[in-house]
Amino acid sequence: MRIFLTGGAGKAGRHVARYLIEQGHRITNADLKPLEMEGVHNIRIDLTDGGQVASALQMRAGYDELDGDDYPGYDAVVHLAAIPAILITPDQECYRINTLSTYNVMEAALSLGIRKIVFASSETTYGVCFAQGEVTPDYVPVDEDHPTVPHDSYAMSKVCNEVTGRSFQARTGADIYGLRINNVIEPDEYAKNFPAFMEDPSLRRRNIFAYIDARDLGHMIDCCLRTDGLGYEVFNVSNDDMSVNIPASEVIERFYKGVEVRKEMGETETFYSNEKAKRMLGFQPKHSWRDVLEG
After folding, report:
1. Residue 1 in contact with residue 23, Cβ under 8 Å?
2. How many CA atoms lie within 13 A of 236 on its CB side?
3. Whether the predicted pLDDT of 295 surpasses 70
């Protein structure tokens, strides 16, 4: 497939781009920064400018396409670009950039007849990650039916983007899939960061003790690209196991006392359910911090 990828130079984006290229897709990276990777064509773009987005989506994906008579267009858009957290820009800018860029990308893509959009939502929509003080989920494991009540500008922007995606899908009938991505971990971060999580599991409380390997995120997005006809859906994205080395029963006792537990938890099972993605998309994460630290 020909993929218009936004935010490909970011932490998650560069791993997603590499994975998609390995699966045979052609990638255009639309970002403020280039992604220096073989097989990627870069377009420097301000996604908050709707005219730039519409123009970029109509451009060729490389000089080789100048020789053909027809412009093939893009098969899908993968929208990852965003201010990635709070406390990076003023809150107003975080909300403005994230919501306006998402609206522009969806509007332009659908106007040009692109029928598949995959966009990054977030674990923060559940109101735990960036809340002031300690907030626990209403129940565990957290699935896509859990209320989304954000406490911060970043999470607010992601909930707004989900509404935008749902509205565009209702209007057009296209496939628009929102990914509530948990904390993205790059392969080198296991040895660097996870020993501290073993010493102090409370460091993972705000992430619901979950994570997603950046390579498995690429696999998840590829699953979305290959699955048609779902309309509008949101999916949690996480690895199968927790990001701490204490059993689930101890996590419940120490951190989720009084929280409804809706199923019997496996000893290492994630509290951020990925069952829906497995069932509807064939998602099968392959990586784990345990392969590095326990191996």
Report:
1. no
2. 27
3. no
pTM value is 0.97
User: 234-272, pLDDT tens digit by residue?
Assistant: 999 999 999 999 999 999 999 999 999 999 999 999 999
Q: Is residue 253 part of a domain?
A: no
Domain for residue 111, yes or no?
A: yes
Cis bond upstream, residue 247 (ω within 30): no
Q: Exposed, middle or buried: residue 193 (CB in 10 Å: 0-12, 13-18, 19+)?
A: middle
Q: 164-191 in b/e burial notation, b at 16+ Cβ within 10 A? A: bbbebbeebebbbbbbbbbbbbeeebbe
* 258 within domain boundaries: no
CATH assignment at residue 101: 3.40.50.720
Whole-number Cα distances in Å, 50 to 46, 75, 105, 175:
9, 20, 8, 21
Structural domain span for residue 100: 2-186+211-241+271-287
Residue 148 in any domain: the answer is yes
Tokens representing 99?
A: 């919501």
Proportion of the chain in helix, strand, coil states, percent, rounded to 5: 40, 20, 40
Q: What is the pLDDT of residue 210?
A: 98
Q: For residue range 161-206, what is the model confidence (pLDDT) as tens digits?
A: 999 999 999 999 999 999 999 999 999 999 999 999 999 999 999 9
Q: What is the pLDDT at residue 248?
A: 98
**Total domains in the fold of the chain:** 1
Per-residue confidence (pLDDT) for residue 72, from 0 to 100: 86
Phi-psi region of 88 (alpha: psi -120 to 50; beta: other; left: phi over 0): alpha
